[in-house]
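yo, Flagellar export chaperone FliS is done. seq:
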Amino acid sequence: MKQAETYKKNTGKTGKQTFPTASAPPSEGGTSIGSIHPQAQSKNTNPYQQTAMETASSGELTLLLYNGCIKFIDKAEHAMDEKKIAERNNFLKRAQDIIRELMVTLKTDSDVGQDMYSLYDFIHSRLVDANIKNDKEALDEARRFVVEFRDTWKEIIKLDRQERFGEGGQA
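structure:
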């Protein structure tokens, strides 16, 4: 889809983009998404989790991104409930970063890819609305979509493993 290519050109983002680690100050550019990226090294990262991310397949990394996005949405909702504006903003920006990463790395040369791009764009806009307007309904809507994608992706990984390795595959 032309939108994805235009977005990539305008933002300078490619499929090989990395984010600064959680310990990097915001003034260094970009918003960190903590230990989600496999190359992110943080003193808060569990060594087991770090190894799991470094050895994960692209499908498993996508699953990790969905799970991270849900985690940040949940933390943003908690911050909303406690009226902690700065925390809400931080967590929603991190969720937005994950959705943008999914958008940038998405292959949009098919109808399915174009549809997914549009859905990611919608989720991103709902996250922005939730942040700007402190809109819990927008946040819930974005979360429902991400959970649905995560659950579907998890099933795809499970079916792929069963097809390749037999009955034992779990995602």
